[in-house]
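We recall that each integer encodes one residue's backbone shape. We quote one record:
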Amino acid sequence: MKRPIIGCVPYINAAPLARWFETAEGETAAEIRYAAPSLLAEWLEKREVEVALVSSVESFRREETIIIPNIAIASEREVLSVRLFSKKPFDQIQSVALDTSSLTSSALTRAILRERFGLLPEYHSMPPDLRSMLALHDACLLIGDKGMTSNDHGLYTLDLGGAWHEWTQLPFVWAVWLANPESDVEYLARALHHAKAYGLANLDALVESESARAGIERDLCDRYLRSIMNYDLTARHLEAMERFRPFVQQDRSPHS
């Protein structure tokens, strides 16, 4: 059987779900390729990968795809790695630069600013760089490792996972494994669940390696992977996704 190709984000939070595929055993099961969530969605649509760890909004936009059960990247409350940085108090924001990497985080930013702060600012997509984004806009969204490590000195910051939980009392699902309907979903699910079990059983080693790779303080990396991230997809997580769905469907900003 030809090895399936798996698409995964390159961020620390995906390490427990992905690193097994870089072992000798895992390499025989599948080939793994890394890219930002937005590019992974393109790969999935073009059939360049059989399954991809993509923004959860992709499951709403492409309902023919199949969600691999019981695996996700989620957070219960604060997420640390998806943050809004602002030069102004949040209720005064008039323009926002969005990290081009994630549709889910962008949609959540719009929902929170609209529903919690009553704001309809202009949105513009930009490459993820704090300084250049804030040079042109009042606020900016950063995700992933940059979202966690960017210097927020002198800025107002909002953790979007924490803001969502405060608003809904629900967890937030940032990414899910989506497979194309013609893929061997049963085989992929077994491999992905094996990878998840391997990652969670080897968190100590992953903390050391990911801290060194990303240049993030070990204690912060440990807290993030062990206490902040959640890799399950339970009925409560699915409820949270359905709570989020209407905000994605009404999000048709001309500036996106």
Remarks:
- The domain at 82-168 is CATH 3.40.190.10 (D-Maltodextrin-Binding Protein; domain 2).
- The chain has two domains: 5-73+171-238, 82-168.
- Confidence is low (pLDDT under 50) at residues 252-256.
- The longest helix spans residues 185-201.
